[in-house]
TrEMBL record:
Transmembrane segments: none annotated. Belongs to the acetyltransferase family. RimI subfamily. Its EC number is 2.3.1.266. It is an enzyme of class 2 (transferase). The keyword Acyltransferase applies. It catalyses: N-terminal L-alanyl-[ribosomal protein bS18] + acetyl-CoA = N-terminal N(alpha)-acetyl-L-alanyl-[ribosomal protein bS18] + CoA + H(+). It is found in: Cytoplasm. This is [Ribosomal protein bS18]-alanine N-acetyltransferase. Residues 1-143 form the N-acetyltransferase domain. It holds the Pfam family Acetyltransf_1.
Length: 143
């Protein structure tokens, strides 16, 4: 498994993975959005030795604190440690750019993601009531 920065040639595969992972009401990113983030954000992909995209992580680079915006793993590659690889690389890349903190929002009912973020030192700052379109609350977490 290789983790690398996304390139413009990855935008179509990223969009396809995104549509597999997120329904329309969960605001999947478009190909155009991925092109934008490839240029302006930290967008890393996990790629198999055969070239298949196994997952990605997207951090928006903000003035003081970057924001982990999205993390997606293809269903066939879940529970293989890929999310942890992407988290490690993201935090390392952010630190190399001078960022020591990071924030994110996560659904309160997404226990697997919450556990992952806590393993990487994220702590819950507050609950955001009705944050998601379906009314689900979110936790604001900070590293």
């Amino acid at each position: 498994m290789t983790v690398r920065a996304a390139a413009a040639a990855d935008a179509a595969a990223l969009e396809q993975l995104e549509r597999t992972l997120f329904s329309a009401e969960n605001y999947p990113l478009s190909r155009r959005a991925f092109y934008y983030h490839i240029r302006h954000s930290l967008l890393l992909i996990a790629q198999t030795d055969s070239g298949e995209m196994a997952g990605y992580i997207l951090a928006l680079l903000r003035r003081r604190e970057p924001k982990l915006y999205s993390l997606g793993i293809a269903p066939a590659y879940r529970k293989m440690g890929i999310a942890s690889l992407l988290m490690e690389r993201m935090l390392s890349e952010l630190a190399s750019r001078g960022f020591m903190r990071c924030v994110l929002e996560v659904r309160c009912d997404n226990n697997a993601a919450i556990d992952l973020y806590r393993r990487f030192g994220f702590e819950t700052v507050k609950t955001l009531e009705g944050f998601y379109k379906d009314g689900c609350n979110a936790y604001l977490m900070r590293h």
